[in-house]
Amino acid sequence: MNIEQDKSNQQVTAVISHYVRPGRESGYEEWLQDISQVARQFEGHNGVTILKPQPGTRPEYVIILRFNSYKNLCRWMRSRERKECIDRAKPLIEKPENVQILTGLEALVSLPNNASPPPPKYKTAFVTWIGVFVCASTLGYLLGPYLVALPYLLRQAIMTGVVVVLLAYVVMPRLTRLFYKWLHSS
C-alpha cells in the first residue's frame, strides 16, 4: 500500500508556518480570517487553529489545519482558491510558507516547524498511552465521585471530553517536549 492510499481515509493535519514582515501583522491577520473562511467551504474541513507569535519574538504564525482525509486536504491545498489567497499573502510574508502534513496520532506529538519526519508509530502510541493513562486516572479519581449519579454514557462523555481537551492543550505538548529526543531518535 502506498503512503497516499494509507493517508486517504484518516484525519490529516497540515501545520503551516509563515514569517510575517514587520509592520504587516494586522494585514496578515485579516488575510488569515479570509483564507480560513474560504477553507471552511471545502469538503472535509475539520477546523483550524492559529498560533500567534508571542510579543517580542519573531513574527511567526502557525496555522494548524485539519481535514477528514488526505484526499480532501490535497484538494484544498491544490485548489485555485487557495493559490489566489497565497498570492495575496506574498507581500505580507518574508519567505514561502513551510508546510508539514501529519496523519493520525503523530499530529499530537509533532511540534510545528519540525523538519524531521514524524516519530515511529510505536513511540507515538507509547507517549499517547502515557498521556491518556495519566489524564484518565487522575480525572477518574478527582471527578469520578462527583459524576457517579449521572447516567453511564453521560459520565463517559464528560470524562472523555475533558481527557481529550487536556491531552490536546496541556498534556501532549509537555510530553512531546519531555520525550522529544527519544521520539525523534533513529
Explain what the structure shows:
This protein is of the alpha+beta class and 186 residues long. It has eight helices and four strands. A four-stranded antiparallel sheet has the order 2-3-1-4.
Helix and strand topology:
Blueprint: H1 3-7, E1 12-19, H2 25-40, E2 45-51, E3 60-67, H3 70-77, H4 80-89, E4 98-103, H5 106-109, H6 121-147, H7 152-178, H8 180-183
Antiparallel strand pairs: 1-3, 1-4, 2-3
Helix pairs in contact: 2-4, 6-7
What distance lies between the first and last C-alpha atoms, to the nearest angstrom? 23 Å
Q: Which fold name is given in CATH as the topology of the largest domain?
A: Alpha-Beta Plaits
Residue share in helix: 40-55%
Strand order of the largest sheet: 2-3-1-4
Spans where pLDDT lies below 50 across 5 or more residues: 1-7
Report the count of strand segments. 4
CATH architecture name of the largest domain: 2-Layer Sandwich
Tell me, rounded to a whole number, the average pLDDT.
Answer: 83
- Summed up, the domain count is 2
Rg computed from alpha carbons, rounded to a whole number of angstroms = 19 Å
Structural class: alpha+beta
SS element count, helices? 8
Reading the helices and strands in chain order gives HEHEEHHEHHHH
Q: What is the highest CATH level, the class of the largest domain? A: Alpha Beta
Major sheet summary line: 4 strands, antiparallel
Beta-strand percentage range: 15-25%
State the shape: globular
